[in-house]
Here is the input.
Amino acid sequence: MRNMRRSSESEFHPIRGLRYHVRRWRSAGAPKMVLLHGWMDVSASFQFMVDALQHDWDVYAPDWRGYGLTDWGKADCYWFPDYLADLDALLEVIQPESPVNLVGHSLGGNVAALYAGARPERVGRFANLEGFGMSPTRPEQAPKRYARWLEELRDPPGLRPYESFSALAERLRAGNKRLSQDQAEFLARHWGQEVAGKGVVLRGDPAHKIVNPVLYHYEEARACWREIRAPVLWVEGAESETPQRLHLNESQIAERRAAFRDLRDARVADAGHMLHHDQPQAVARLLEQFLAR
Here is the structure.
């Protein structure tokens, strides 16, 4: 038996020269919540968590540039500061008159953390789901990084095609054993699209896979985090492999958490990086307890 899903609607807004898609689970008059998805993801990824909310929320979730139903960028690669500028413009549409409740997962959490430091007056509360920041870098890595970027511009990466939505759903379940068949089929229909002559491919610009030529400067990110005035909820999946992938040990993660002046943290049991898929009820409960304070 399929789960009952809360219906959403699509809004499209002109944002910095792009036609931006915002998924909205409408509840007129209810407090607003803005959800920001991660890398190679789409706004519909939050559906299970939205379904688990116990109270009325007017929920907005944009597809970042180059993802989902939003236009692709007009350059040959993507630059991280564009996400901040897009978010700033989107919030002027969604809630211009008061600070917002921001929830970001992974890439979305990293964008929101920088934004909340750059525009502290615009954020009321911020929940960071698995947004640890990026791996630390060293200046001597720059030459090889630029060289790799130039090579990838010459020979851009592509996206793997799948025979059908069912095949994509099977791949999603292979990558995350916690996904139910129903969840995987739902995600496949929103993550994927049929392309003539290719089958089903992800709804994303392959240029997202081109390496960022500019090294990540942890000190700059931490300086932004220190400027955040909003209360912050830092949420990790108890079985997430993200810290290992980013080469971050416990002390480094603790140092990153300590940069936020008003922080609460939580770990979600039996959940990996995609904790809003793995344990949507637990994540929804944490968010509502935090945002309703």
Remarks:
- The beta strands are 9-15, 18-25, 32-36, 58-62, 100-105, 123-129, 192-195, 199-202, 232-237, 263-268.
- The CA atoms of residues 154 and 288 lie 47 Å apart.
- The chain has a mean pLDDT of 96.
